[in-house]
Every structure is written in structure tokens, then in C-alpha cells.
Amino acid sequence: MCGIVGYIGHREAYPIVIKGLHRLEYRGYDSAGIALFDGKELNLCKTKGKVADLETKFNGTTSTAGNVGIGHTRWATHGVPNDVNSHPHYSNSGNLVIIHNGIIENYSSLKKELKKRGYSFESDTDTEVLVNLIEDVMINEDVMLGKAVQIALNQTIGAYAITVFDKRKPNELVVARLGSPLAIGIGENEFFIASDASPFIEFTNNAIYLEDGEMAVVRLGKEIKVRKIHDDSFVDPYVQQLQMNLEQIEKGGYEHFMLKEIYEQPNAITDTYRGRMLVDEGIIRMAGVDDNIERIANAKRIIIVACGTSWHAGLVAEYIFEDLARIPVEVEYASEFRYRNPVIYENDVVIAISQSGETADTMAAIKLAKEKGAFVFGVCNVVGSSISRESHAGAYTHAGPEIGVASTKAFTTQITVLTLMALKLAKHRGTISDSGFRYHLQQLEAIPTKISKVLETTNEHIKEIAFKYKEAPNCLYLGRGYNFPVALEGALKLKEISYIHAEGYPAAEMKHGPIALIDEQMPVVVIATKVGHYDKVVSNIQEIKSRKGKIIAVVTEGDEAVKELADFVIEVPDTIESLTPLLTTIPMQLLSYHIAVMLEKNVDQPRNLAKSVTVE
Ligand code: F6R
Fold first, then answer.
1. pLDDT in tens, 124-171
2. Radius of gyration of the chain (CA)
3. Stretch 546-565: mean pLDDT, rounded?
4. For 290-321, how does the pLDDT look when each residue is reduced to its tens digit (9 = 90+)?
5. Which of 460, 536, 539, 585 is most buried by its number of CB atoms within 10 A?
6. Mean pLDDT along residues 62-87
């Protein structure tokens, strides 16, 4: 979590850094700060609050001059969000200044040592400890900044992406990463540092993504030298050509990124299957699967590891893989898996799902699976992300940048990739007929058009439903089979952006407890599509109705039976059961979105959350 930005070159640094922080605000937004070097002085301004608050604070109080700058937008780990704990942090001499994304786990013992040596600390952060440790190394070992950073980092335990500046060496920035992402944009005698490429995309398409355990001295007029932190060996940096464009990371006329991303889903899903699914030929091409087909198709078991919304996509995939490819699947919270001493066999295939590709728990789960000899397949959205690099093979979702903290298009494109994978394996294993395979492809091809229809025909109606239930303190979401994970996802969306308590349940589990909650105040969102245990779900709806619960039902177009029972129905087009989540999810997203807007919540940056969870 936290976003870092740096600039060194011939332009004014402030506008680049401040704009970059706005773009990275999805990573954390409880405080922000910038340090600028104007050739003589380091000027620093920081504040609790958002990047916009930082801009206001700069006005008139702090000079924005200088061609070197580093900035930070924070998601607090050590120390409450306040002005003092905000980054950047100075060293005691005032010569060094640092920004840091991550956690130094042994900061407390390091701090004790530094205090004994006379250092004092203003903040409660681990980062201030790190910058003083670097300073201490510089003084005691009489080394330059790059070497001091390396020695200091070798004394730390934890995770970091850092940028350090020494005002006595104004033509260089020192950067390092372990566990948190860091990209270096390379321009014409200018360099950009950032947690992802969005802050510098309008300036350059060339970037180096540091790998875990690497650092670099970024010096004007020199080539970038990358080395390993632990043994000082040089690494050949790979300069990547970025594919992102500016339009993709701006709101394009929508009020919020979340709404834009909801509406992008038809195109995003088309992008996910484009070039992979050849409907007329009856072929699915996925290089990551094709190259490892025997390994994956002969897996005794597939273990899916993920967190949050990606975990919900994993649950949908469990149904698809077992149903179509007949391979047993277990779906695990990455955070539990990594600490459980799980049984992992060499012939297991682990699928790691992650939009950001940076989630610390998922990354740790992958490392554990690799240690035990399992084959790891990554399903990520962010190209070049840590999880995609750490996996043996993988498939990108190609959803484009997802900026809204609440995941939307990432979820549906993850399901799309996993459906393609399951179909491909099913064909290889002979668990699906040729005609069944082709039929699935045709149905999947039709999904984007059907989503467009859902967006067109239901949005206004969902606004009315949102208005009616926006004050509800609780909400229940029910679904069965493929739509049970959609119920979980619907509840998560409502919780995280509107702060209304919501629970998702398999509809049949209601009678084992949650039914006690139902009274005339309780809205219950039920997914009751024609395919997938329809009659059973209708019985569950009857049970809710007889306890006076308010029913919002997502049904297949033309359904009459549920209309009789429900307070509101939202219709989605018909499709095959395995693809219903791609349609039924859309009303869930819209409902939570409109409720959050009506409650005047910060839709794109809900409280306490961050887009990329790079801490445990
Ligand atoms: C919810 C949401 C989170 C993420 C979770 C995993 O809307 O976005 O629950 O799904 O933090 O993130 P990734 O997919 O980046 O690993």
C-alpha cells in the first residue's frame, strides 16, 4: 500500500509529482507529502488527508521550485495518519530524505540501537528509523548513499519500495525494492520513479521494473545500474515498453472510476478473450496453458489462492473447473494458506488470482507452493506485476487499469480467463463434447453484448432500488451454485463502499441461522436465474417473504413467478449456468455504487482501504 513518486531531470518536479500522487491515490490516501530540492534547499510539505489537501497546504507555505522531487501518498501501518507520520521523512542531519512503501518489521530493535547512538525520532514510523539507519551507515562506514542504502537494507527485515535523496548529491536518487513494486521511467536525461507506471505514462513508454531484492542508483547523465541488494552483483535491467495510455487512467466523463470500470466490462471481457477464443475454429489458444498443458491437465488437484474479490472469482472457477474439466479444486484465502502448513503435492497446480499482482499474502502463498514443488499459474491484470513474474506461467486478464478501489471489471475478466482455461482443459481431458465446447464458446462470445444490455436496461431501475434501501443498516445476499460467490461479491461491494453491513450466503444455508435476521426492515438480494437450482431458490424466496423480508431478485428476462413474490426484480438475459455470474454480478455492482453515491461516500477511495495490499 502507499504510493511513491519521484522525479529528477530538467522539468519542474512539483507538477509531475503532485499529478503522480493523484494517480496513485488509489494505493492509500490517509496522508500525503512531497519534498523538493531547489538547488540549495530541501523544501518539504506534508499533511494528514488527501493529495488535494496537500496541494492546499503547499499554497503559500512551501516553495514548489526544483527539478528533483519525491512524494508519497500513505496507507498507515506504523503510526496513526497525522502530519508528523506522513512521508517524506528526514534523517537527523536533514541531509537525507526518504519515501517508503512497505513495513520494516524489525524497526523497533533498530530504533533502540539508533537511540543509544544519539538519534532522535519525531514520528512513530518505521520509515524514519530506516532513513536514520542509512545516515548512520554513511557516517560510520564513510560510504556514499547507494552503498549505505544497501548496507542498511541488509540489516532490515520486511518489505519496501523506497526512494532516498541526499541533498549533497543532487543529481541522483537511490531506489530499492523488496515485496513492494517500483518502476523507473526513463526519459531524455530525466527519470521518473513510481509504484506503477501511471504517473509517468505521458512522458515515456520505457520503464524498468525492479525485481524483488534489487536496487538502483538513478543518476542524471548515466545509465541505470541495477544490482542485488544482498550481494552487490550487477543485474542486466530489462527495459519494458509500456502499453498503457493516458485515456485508460482518466475518468472519461464518468463521475467515478468505479462507474467507468463497470461500464467498461463489455469491452474488457472482449479484450480478455480476443485472440484466445477462436469460435469458428472451435479453438482456445492460451500460451501459458498450451506450453504446460500436460502438467496442468494431469494435475491431481488445483488449489486456487487469492484474496477478496479475486477469491470470489476463484470460487466461481471452482464450479467451472470441477463441472467442465472434472479436476478437484480447493479455493483458499492466501492469507490462511500461507500460515497453515498446507499439504501441497508436486503434482498440484496452484492458480494465484490477483488484479494488482502485488498482494503480499497471495505472493507469499505462491512462494510457499513453489518451495513445495507445485506448478504455479498466475492470473493477473497488471502486466509485469510481481505475481505474474513469480508464477511459472500465467494469463493476463487484459482488463486495463482498474483505479476504483472496489474491484469490478477485474472480477468479470478473471472469471472469463478462468472459464477459457477450464474449457481448454476440459477439451484436452475429453470431459466435454465437441459440440458442448463450441456451444460454450458461442455463449461466452455473446456475453459482452448481454452485459451492455444489462447496463442499458437496469441502471435507472437499480437507482430507484438504491434510493429505497439506502438507509438500511443491514443487507443479506443469497445465491446458489455458481451464483453463491456472486452473493458474496455483492455483499462485499456494498460493505466496502457504502459501509452498510452485508452478508452473502448460499441460499440454502439461510435456514441454518441467517433466517433469524429477517424482518420487515431487512432487504434480501436473491439471485434466482432460470438456470441453476431455480425452484429451490424460489422456495427460499417464499421463506423470506413469509417473514416479511424485502426481496430484490435478480432473475432471467421474462420470469413471471419471482415477480409475484419480490418487491423488485432486475432482469438479466438468459445464458448457460456457468456464465450467469458474468451477468448477475453487474446489478450487484450498480446497486452498491448507487447506494454509496446517494450516501455521499467516497466511492473510489473508501475509508481504510487501498487498491494494492502489499502488506500482510
Ligand atoms: C474488493 C477488492 C479487494 C481485492 C483484494 C485482492 O473490491 O478489490 O478485496 O480483491 O484486495 O486484490 P488483488 O486482486 O489485487 O490481489
1. 999 999 999 999 999 999 999 999 999 999 999 988 999 999 999 999
2. 25
3. 95
4. 999 999 999 999 999 999 999 999 999 999 99
5. 585
6. 92
- Which has more pLDDT, 127 or 29? 127
Residue to mutate (ligand 1; options 309, 391, 492; most atoms within 8 A of CB): 309
pLDDT at 450 over 90: yes
In this structure, the strands spanning 301-306 and 348-354 are parallel
The H or E element containing residue 236 is none
Letter string b/e over residues 382-409, b meaning 16 or more CB atoms within 10 A of that residue's CB: bbbbbbbebbbbbbbbbbbbbbbbbbbb
Percent of the chain with pLDDT over 90: 88
What is the number of other CB atoms lying within 10 angstroms of the CB of residue 270?
Answer: 18
Cα 306 to ligand 1 centroid, rounded to whole Å:
8
CA of 309, closest atom in ligand 1: 10
Three-state DSSP at 386 gives helix
Phi, psi for 41 (deg, rounded to 5): -115, 155
> Are 555 and 569 within 8 A, CB to CB?
yes
Q: Give the Cα separation of 362 and 450 in Å (integer).
A: 32
- The count of other CB atoms within 10 Å of the CB of residue 372 is 14
537 lines ligand 1 (CB under 6 A): no
Cell of 520: 420487515
Q: List all residues 6 or more positions away from 277 whose beta carbon is below 8 Å from its beta carbon.
A: 283, 284, 420, 441, 444, 445
406 lines ligand 1 (CB under 6 A): yes
d(CA 506, CA 483): 8
The yes-or-no verdict on residue 244 having pLDDT over 80 is no
Residue of 525, 538, 506, 511 lying closest to 595 (CA atoms): 525
The set of residues, in sequence order, having a beta carbon less than 8 Å from that of 527 and lying 6+ positions away, is 477, 478, 479, 480, 483, 486, 487, 537, 553, 554, 580, 584
The single residue listed with the C-alpha cell 513492494 is 180
The residue type at 347: N
Grid cell 530524505 is found at 97
Residues 49, 50, 53, 59, CA torsion sign: positive
Pairing type for strands 206-209 and 239-241 reads antiparallel
Residue 378 has pLDDT above 90, yes or no: yes
Residue 527, pLDDT > 90, answer yes
Q: Which pTM does this prediction carry?
A: 0.82
**How far apart, in whole angstroms, are the C-alpha atoms of residue 416 and residue 436?**
17
308 CB within 6 A, ligand 1: yes
Atom of ligand 1 nearest to the CA of 405: 8
- pLDDT tens digits for range 587-614: 999 999 999 999 999 999 999 888 777 7
Quote the strand ranges of 444-493, DSSP E.
Answer: 474-479
Four-residue CA torsion sign, 510, 514, 517, 521: negative
CB 86 within 8 A of CB 35: no
Instruction: Give the whole-angstrom CA distance, residue 504 versus residue 493.
Output: 11
* Contact in structure between 73 and 32 (CB atoms under 8 Å): yes
Concatenate the DSSP letters of all residues of 58-114 into one string. HTTTS----SEEEEEEE--SSS-SSTTTSSPEE-TTSSEEEEEEEEETTHHHHHHHH
* Residue 307 CB less than 6 A away from ligand 1: yes
Q: What's the 408 CA to ligand 1 centre distance in angstroms? A: 10
DSSP classification of residue 24: H
Taking the alpha carbons at both ends of the chain, their separation in whole angstroms is 10
CA atoms within 13 A on the CB side of 273: 29
